[in-house]
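May I ask for an example protein's residues together with how it folds?

___
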Amino acid sequence: MVLSIDFQAGWPRGVAAVAVGVTRAGALGRIGTIRPSLQTAMQRGRHLFPRDARPGALVGPLAVLGPTGEAIYLLLLPGGSGWSEGAAQRLGDGALRHLAAAGHETQGIWLGEGGSAGGARLAEITLGARLAAHRHDLRTRARPGDPARVRRLVLAGPASASARTAWQPFAAIAEGVEFARELVNEPGNRLYPASFAARLKRRLAPLGIAVEILSPPALRQLGMGALLAVGSGSANQPRLVVLRWPGRGAGRKAVPVALVGKGVTFDTGGISIKPASKMEEMKGDMAGAAAVVGTLLVLARQRAANPAVGVLPLVENMVSGTAYRPGDVLTSFSGQTIEVVDTDAEGRLILADALAYAVRRFKPRAVVDLATLTYSVIAALGHLYAGIFSNNETLAAQLIGAGREAGERLWRLPLHPDYDEHLKSEIADIRQCAPNDESADAVHAAQFMQHFVGDAPWAHLDIAGVEFMRGAGRSGGSGFAVRLLTQWLTGAQAGRGSRRQPRRANGSQRKSAQGRRRNPR
């Protein structure tokens, strides 16, 4: 069901409940011109917010009903410079969820702020509300106690006209995030490498995105030994999908940004098998690929000027008599040989081939990879931040800034040549993982992958821990990084990293078997 969204200049009409934005100083805008008794209710209601209430808190329904009988809720807004880090989106998310829990299927949000700033704010609130309304499940019947399915949302206030215009690019972002979430939520029996690739062809090709699907014979011809090894234990053979958005008005010689996403459609751990507890969540081990897909979809819908390519290595990591083993030595696409230590550290292997391929084929001005890669990044950052590693200071700063604007937080973690000492192999060019007695698996994974990007400006986002929504009333894929990447590519910075020699970052687990069994993801 698609949420019906309408923008109205006056008081929201045809809805069962309205959340009215107020600050601690009172309602924004001249509510009294709509109905004098409402102004009195707002002034009385603002004192109902406890001192420690955070923006997004609701009070209501108030005793006084609106002009057409709807229930009135007060929605606490940030004051002053509090509109930051996705605050408007969180506001819309909270308002819709609270009113849905109260059983309201038709809702309104009234914001008294006018002008273009108010319109942009209202559009961002709309994005948060639409994403909160999105559902993706395979149930055939509802259960008692389920929150109301919101069918209609009216956004109203003096800035509604400018909000309607400002909403158009946000509508594209909403579609991209929703598609990324749907992909993460799909179970492994429905989404596997071949079906994933076919779904992308159906959805993206009509938007002007070129979709190229490389099957195992082509991968063998290219020499992608790491990618093929990870997929060797599954009856569902691997694919490499290449997505190309040419950029509106960009010439044929325009240099793209490359986005590389880990696409393990289900991860058992292989021979280094995971524990059974929470293994079902491993259907989301392709959240990095989903984020890339969602971002390319947004660029196409917005007809963005910046060219971009997506490279998606798609595999299942399964257990069988043909599965790859600890101790194997693989020859990667780059020609480097890799000693396998843990078959459950498969993500860095498939990314090694995909990163080297993206750099060699497209010579991008910047490369960003995204992956649910390590448990250790969760141990370090929990579920509020994703980790970022980069060999380029400018690129890292741009991505962190874009994440701050989009409300998708990144925390910088180190790379340093000294970590290479733990990746030395006696029989291959490099070890896949550090020895068991070394910690910092997230760092070692990034250090490993850096060997496959050459001099390209590169950033690695370890999004383990943020790929699913968490908290009351929230579940399923988050679509993390679609908003961040869109902000980076189409915002003020527009991803204008150069193909020059990067400034190397100066700094001064693997999924360890012990950590994995204590804290399965």
About this structure: Residues 492-521 have pLDDT under 50 and may be disordered.
